[in-house]
Amino acid sequence: MSEHPTTGLDELVHQRHRLGILTIAAEVKRVEFGYLRETLELTGGNLSRHIAVLEEAGLLEVEKGYDGKRPKTWVHITPSGRRALAEEMAALRALVARHDS
Amino acid sequence: MSEHPTTGLDELVHQRHRLGILTIAAEVKRVEFGYLRETLELTGGNLSRHIAVLEEAGLLEVEKGYDGKRPKTWVHITPSGRRALAEEMAALRALVARHDS
């Protein structure tokens, strides 16, 4: 029996908010916390928790700094994060193709 | 700002094991418990819990019966289940298209 596409999914990346964070981070050099919060319609606390999980796993890195006088937080995706996201996307592509066939 | 595709995902359906159960159930008239357990590489207890969540939400129906003398459990997807899965697949398709572009 060939493997079902969902067995290739990892909750670390598949969880919908983390998937949102990673897909946005993959599109840009770095992304600001407030932009992620608004785009993904999350509370700051919820977003912080998901970023911490991804940082702990080495998929994201967090930078703290200033935009003028305002403290800001940015995140950027790591090479491991890009690989994990590419694997998730391959599994999703297979799942959608199977569903559409 | 247009909505990010992950905001259209619902954990009820998006959770990877429940997504597996629903995609398989959508392909056939009904599916037997043991087949789901093996295909999705789940323990019986874990599979039972996810089926209960989907049944409670009205996305699956469970039938108990016999195959010869052996008690068997089958599940089948409901019209609500098909709609929920179609919405999930539309969001995933948008996400993959955005990632690939």
UniProtKB/TrEMBL annotation, chains A, B:
InterPro entries: WH-like_DNA-bd_sf, WH_DNA-bd_dom, WH_DNA-bd_sf. It comes from the Bacteria. Residues 18-96 form the Winged helix DNA-binding domain. This is Helix-turn-helix domain-containing protein. It comes from Amycolatopsis acidicola. The lineage of its organism: Bacteria, Bacillati, Actinomycetota, Actinomycetes, Pseudonocardiales.
